[in-house]
Specification:
Layout (H helix, E strand, L loop, with lengths): L3 H8 L5 E7 L6 E7 L6 E6 L8 H9 L1 H13 L4 H4 L4 E5 L4 E6 L10 E6 L2 E6 L14
Parallel strand pairs: 3-4
Antiparallel strand pairs: 1-2, 2-3, 4-5, 5-6, 6-7
Helix pairs in contact: 1-2
Length: 144
């Protein structure tokens, strides 16, 4: 277990995630993002919400190495898609925020809310689905 920058450095080597680098994030957060080696259109992000957040680079690499299986399970939970040709157009992305809890968001899942659908995992067990219909956008309120 390590901090977000060390985890990103380990992942950016020869593993399942490539081109991972720190990007701008809202105050109080740190974010590193890259993409899957075998599915380069799919982003992978690590989000550090507080300085004590620890990342297991080996675990993240193992999840991402088996991305197609997790994407298929997530797509079935969201909308019944069983084939890659179905979920590939849903703009999937992987997000890890420390520990063994992580998620796949489909930005364009059929029938999902404006912000897509979120599938949550604990280790490799699917734990929930949210269509993001009730999401509030912070900082998007009109000035008054």
């Amino acid at each position: 277990m390590t901090d977000v920058l060390r985890a990103a450095d380990r992942l950016g080597g020869q593993g399942a995630v490539v081109a991972i680098e720190e990007i701008g994030a809202p105050q109080g957060l740190r974010c590193c993002t890259g993409h899957l080696r075998d599915l380069p259109d799919i982003p992978v992000s690590l989000i550090e919400e507080h300085p004590r957040t620890l990342f297991d680079a080996g675990f993240i690499d193992a999840v991402c190495a088996d991305a197609a299986r997790h994407l298929r399970a997530a797509a079935i939970a969201v909308g019944g898609a069983r084939e890659e040709s179905s979920w590939a157009d849903w703009a999937p992305e992987f997000t890890f925020s420390g520990g063994r809890e992580w998620m796949i968001r489909f930005a364009c899942a059929p029938g999902a809310g404006e912000f897509g659908a979120l599938v949550m995992f604990d280790d490799v067990r699917l734990t929930g689905v949210d269509d993001l219909a009730e999401v509030e956008v912070v900082g998007d309120e009109p000035a008054g």
